[in-house]
Amino acid sequence: MDRIKEPYGWIMIWSESIWPSLYYLYYLSFAGLGLYLTLNFGRKTKEPIKKKRAKIIFVTGTISVILSTLTNVILPKLNILTISFLGDVITLIWAFGIVYAIAKYKFMVITPAAAADNIISTVADSLILLDREGNIVTVNKATLALSGYGKDELKGKPVEIFFREKDFKSTLLDKAIKKEAIRNYELNFKTKTGDNIPVVFSSSTMMDEAGGIAGTVCIIKDITERKTLEKELEKLAHFDPLTGSCNRGYGLSLLTQQIKLAHRNKSNILLAYIDIDNLKEINDTFSHEEGDRALEKVAKLFRSTLREIDIICRMGGDEFLLIFPDSSLQDASLIKERVNQNLAQLNQNLKKLYKINLSIGFSCYDPNNPQSKDELIHVADKRMYKEKKNKKRNS
């Protein structure tokens, strides 16, 4: 390049030498390589922050190369000398872009503390951090969703805000002092509205760098679905799915318990063994679905007739066992009368081409003359069949 004097001072112009062209080629190759590497890095990286950094550096670099080429090469070649050589100044645009990208996104890099807070907020189970006094320091989003509280409402509050158990906080702090963990302890979690949610509670002590107690981390897992499933399984195991009455196994187990209780308290138990006389006829004539509906109606009739303490058990097929604690054979006639009255009303309301008929036999547990459950059932069953035969004889 040569220098010439103009009214405003000396300027640089391109000479006919090959060296300026080689210099520009070197400059352009270096800048182009830098832009290519930046662009390629931005395409390959999967991290949003690095993509933004690469974009800023690439854009400012491209602008810098274009403007520098324009002012330092193209305009002088066209003998347009009114604009000075600004390549060195324009290069600062690229430098500024690099500094800006680093400075702006440096603060967005996740620190260990930020990472921990991010992990806490995204944990699916409820997580509560307590200080050394057992007061809430922070909770995650799952805890807020489960409890119905806002984060500011909980900060500094004692952990008992969530739990009704007596001395819960003192027990928790005692475990923390002993550095003992609590694992999978089932209890109820109290919400802002006062509802109780079954949860599994676990906790462990947090230690500081000096080995002292910094606080306690608590994890709460909502087990509502599990408890609901357990109840459903228990219902399937203990109750007849068609009638909702106790099944044979569960009913006999309850009878055994009642006999032990009656023996201890010197009280009576009345048993009624009941058979639906014409269920087979209903099944054969009107379909098994109609027979199932008849069974459901009879079980409903028993529930509306009996006391809450009485037990209804479907023994199988068309047979039921009714257990009346603290009752004797003196109550049998009244119970039978009530059942028959309600049965007559049921047949009237059904308006079917058939009528439901029941045969009933009674037996009683007497603590002064105790019998086994099998003996009691046998006596009631025998008396029931005797009534059934009498009906057939008289029909």
Rg over CA atoms? 44 Å
Low-confidence stretches: none
- Lateral arrangement of strands in the main beta sheet: 4-3-7-6-5
Structural class: alpha+beta
H-E string: EEHHHHEEHHHEEEHHEHHEEHEH
Give the biggest sheet.
5 strands, antiparallel
What fraction, in percent, of the residue positions are helical? 40-55%
Short description:
This protein is an alpha+beta fold. It is built from 13 helices and 11 strands.
Describe the structure.
This protein is α+β, with helices and mostly antiparallel strands and 395 residues long. It has 13 helices and eleven strands. It has helices at residues 19-44, 48-77, 87-106, 112-122, 141-147, 151-154, 168-177, 224-238, 248-265, 279-286, 288-305, 332-350, 373-394; strands spanning 2-6, 9-13, 126-130, 136-139, 182-190, 196-207, 213-222, 269-276, 311-316, 319-325, 358-365. Strands 4-3-7-6-5 form a five-stranded antiparallel β-sheet, with helices on both faces. A four-stranded antiparallel β-sheet has the order 9-10-8-11, with helices on both faces. The chain is elongated and about 135 Å long. The chain starts with a strand and ends with a helix.
Task: Write the SSE topology.
Layout: E1 2-6, E2 9-13, H1 19-44, H2 48-77, H3 87-106, H4 112-122, E3 126-130, E4 136-139, H5 141-147, H6 151-154, H7 168-177, E5 182-190, E6 196-207, E7 213-222, H8 224-238, H9 248-265, E8 269-276, H10 279-286, H11 288-305, E9 311-316, E10 319-325, H12 332-350, E11 358-365, H13 373-394
Antiparallel strand pairs: 1-2, 3-4, 3-7, 5-6, 6-7, 8-10, 8-11, 9-10
